[in-house]
Amino acid sequence: MSGGAAVVEGTGRPVVSVGPVTLPAPDRGVDLEVRVSAPVTGTDLPVVAFSHGFGSSSRAYGPLVDAWAAHGFVVVRPTHLDSRTVGLAPDDPRAALPWRTRAEDLQRVLDDLGTLTAAVPGLAGRVDPTRVGVAGHSFGGQTAGLLLGLRVLGPDGVPGADLTDARVRVGVLLATAGRGGDALAPGMIERMPWLNPTFEGLRTPTLVVAGDADHSPLTVRGPAWMTDPFRLAPGATDLLTVLGGEHSLGGIAGYEAAETTDEDPARVAVVARATSAYLRSALVPGDDAWTRARADLDPSVVRLESRV
């Protein structure tokens, strides 16, 4: 397929969503379930692999994913092993390294893009597998970050596996945990040892989105903790702060989702438009969506800080 054709931008493009699409994964203990969302028209469509928050699933994040698909992206959402829908026992050995198994899920969906797109009627042949971004919310942000260059420090301070994926051109990290150490609340590192990332290797262009009212029990630093991925990652180019936004950033986790604590459609709409524009400008040659979106941001809803 042609590598240079751009996808026509539009906010009202019809979207199709298919799932679960099952990928065999004998080494995982349970096959990987994925939901695929895509516009019904367009060619040379870029891909976004999305990682859900801890305990969630591929069924969630409709308000965000639907907007991305309507703007010309094929969004693939795996259900990770920590999902409540999987029901993994706490003492299951696979529960010990959720950061690693989650990243492997994202890599598996990128490996098997052909299978996933073939499962959606009319999508085969319309996808450009060379234009790939990753995104994630909460723990999913750390998962996406691993493919961008983030690494998890072990108890000895030595970085874990480097899972940077050369196929990935851009990232979006939403309400993502900051550094570990003395930034964590007492006892958290023992309960969640993966909350000890280093961002120095994250060099892929990345947009960080954080809420200025996201008071996480995981940290003693308050909402500023969620800005660490921007402050500490060399590749993070922009920080979008959602004013009054809590952990769900107005409700990105789902339509009428019970875990949304700060429901605000205006916040969700701004986050969806801004993240879509950032991804498009990184993945579609010549697209100026991010330049236009930056100029149109509502200062009563969000604040933007940029390095470049």
Q: Note poorly predicted spans.
A: 1-10
Strand content: 15-25%
List the total number of helices. Answer: 8
Mean pLDDT: 92
Q: Output the radius of gyration.
A: 18 Å
What is the straight-line distance between the termini?
A: 32 Å
What is the SS-derived class? alpha/beta
Number of strands: 11
**Cα shape:** globular
What helical percentage do the residues reach?
A: 10-25%
Element-by-element helix/strand order: EEEHEHHEHEEHEEHEHHE
Q: How does the major sheet shape up?
A: 9 strands, mixed
* Largest sheet strand order: 1-2-4-3-5-7-9-10-11
Short description:
The protein is of the alpha/beta class. The protein is 24% helix and 22% strand. The longest helix is centred in the last third of the chain and has 19 residues, at 265-283.
Structural account:
The protein is of the alpha/beta class and 308 residues long. It is built from eight helices and eleven strands. Strands 1-2-4-3-5-7-9-10-11 form a nine-stranded mixed sheet. A two-stranded antiparallel sheet has the order 6-8. The longest helix has 19 residues, at 265-283. The protein is globular, with a radius of gyration of 18 Å.
Which descriptors apply to this entry?
single chain; 308 residues; alpha/beta; 9-stranded mixed beta sheet; two-stranded antiparallel sheet; 8 helices; disordered N terminus
